Amino acid sequence: MAVALQLLAAALLLPPHRGTPRPTRWPRSARGAISMGSKGKSSFAAYTISGKGSDIFPLPAHRAAIQVHKKHKGAGCPPSKAPAEHVPPLLRGRLDARGLRVLHLDPPVWIVDGFFSAEECESYRALAEDAQRALRLEQSATFSASTATARTSATWFIRYQDAPQLLARAAALLGRPVDHFEEPQLVRYEPGQRFTWHYDAIPPSMLANGGQRIATLLVYLNDVETGGCTAFRDLREGGTDGDGQPKRLAVQPKKGRALLFFPSDADGAPDERTLHAGEPAKEDKWIAQLWLHEKPYTPANLPMGTCQREGDAAARAFAKEWQLEPPPPLISE
After folding, report:
1. Is there a contact between 224 and 285 (Cβ–Cβ < 8 Å)?
2. CA angle at residue 78 from 77 to 79, to 5 degrees?
3. Which segments carry the region annotation Disordered (predicted)?
4. What is the DSSP letter of 139?
């Protein structure tokens, strides 16, 4: 069992292939700058990613990006301000979702405030105490051998059928079936714990099961007053710091808030601009996390008895109760 868990952990969090990445397919002007059109000029600003990379994580090959205007810093920009060509394909036609805001236009980073109710946050956190419905990894999944000590949090795998609130709300937001999602997870960061820079895209050797990860969804289950941000090394949030340098995009945990970003483009090409980290907090931080794949994903039998079909039924019942759009039909059946 221990070996199986280590293999599964490595499979979930290996780094993407560091070949020449294909750029995210966003429209560009004849001079190579990203085009926003007249609609986005007052709310967004194009820039070129700069700064220092590292031997493990060099600067991305594709460095064009678009941040929100500093007047939207922190709270984000209304979706109505985003030019249609820059709305992620998974969100097109879904911009009326309550609490949806744009934190960064390209690569897209969005939040949904109120994604979980306070009660849903508490019930999901409580799964950590149920050994039949949640399986704790004795050693948290790490990113690669070179960053083997980079993650110090604890992770639980949750049975699909025991995460109806996460699956139903994720399917309603993204319009994808339950069998396209990886095993739902629960993560706890104790004071001082962190997860340093990493990518969420997976390498070519793992693409046989569901293809590439095309969306990352994190839900913060408690407020964190100091530290604990999800930070993006190469992205800007608008405005400058005390030294006059552009502020790095960092999302503060807020109870019930979802963070949504896209480790790869719509064609499955990894987007290295989404390099990110979980910063140390001075108090406990709890998150629910879920990854969406291009195609149906086959889970391991962890925890024992996990079942996508039962998870789909539970998510449909939850969606009906809360008047959400039901998940699309399973494709794997």
Report:
1. yes
2. 110
3. 18-38
4. S
